[in-house]
# Entry
Amino acid sequence: MIENSTIKIAVASGKGGTGKTLVSTNLFWAVQNAGIPITLVDCDAEEPNVAEFISGEILNNYPVSQKIPVIDTDTCVFCGKCFNYCNYNAIVYLPANHFIQVVEDLCHDCGACTVACKFGAITEKEKHLGTVQSMCMNSHAELIEARADVGIYSPVPVIKRAINSVNDQYLSIFDSPPGISCPFIATVENADFVVLVTEPTPFGLNDLKLSAETLQQLKKPFGVIVNRAGLGNREVYDWLIANKVPLLMEIPFDREIARIYSEGHLLVEEKPAYQLQFIELLKTIEKLVKR
Ligand code: SF4
Ligand code: SF4
# Structure
């Protein structure tokens, strides 16, 4: 452990199904098993599944909502000030037609329009976006799940609330949403280090390059775990060497591992040799973060 410090690790992948949750749940289990304080945050808010592998006593479950402005067109004088104050193009304003409306999906809850309106035409309503639930596994291990409501425009506010609810444990792991869009960025921007999980196939390499480019733009240090090693070809390994990206770990292409995962079990419990491998993974990341 790095003394007097905390480490936040995001586990991500360019697409779903590459083994991201396999890595985050087993790393979590191995670390808590070693007595190290840890929190695992399931940031895949549109499809959280970490609780299928790890459970605990529910400590709390609270709603996440945002304020949405509501414009009373009878009071509005169509001065356009709120429209000019909105940096997110969330207000449709057609003064010639006496039409003004908030586009709820674009609203970022910044409150600028409400402040701008000097005619008392704007009130606010609450819009439910999802929930954040925390579960206690034992005295030093906690699981936090972000769960967005079906059909909401963006899960980002729910993900941010889940990440902000982490206590200062030594280690936090963020199980990131797949892809490289806003939910991924909202997750990795809070991390000290990102673990990208890929598979050694042309598709895996393509997604790895896209994820790596995004992380380089964000100036986030990262390393790679190759899952299903032995499948496909050597192109991913060649790319890692050429780009000086650390290979953190390999998990072999193995029917037994696939069975353990598909039955909702943990590799570190069923194959104890992996306990040591995941602790070694943490030590490798600690060294890379300390650099
Ligand atoms: S709260 Fe902010 S983002 Fe939403 S409509 Fe008003 S100014 Fe635009
Ligand atoms: S600032 Fe108020 S009065 Fe002016 S257009 Fe917006 S809602 Fe209407």
Remarks:
- Residues 69, 85-86, 88, 90-91, 102, 107-113 surround iron/sulfur cluster (ligand 1) (CB under 6 Å).
- The mean pLDDT is 94.
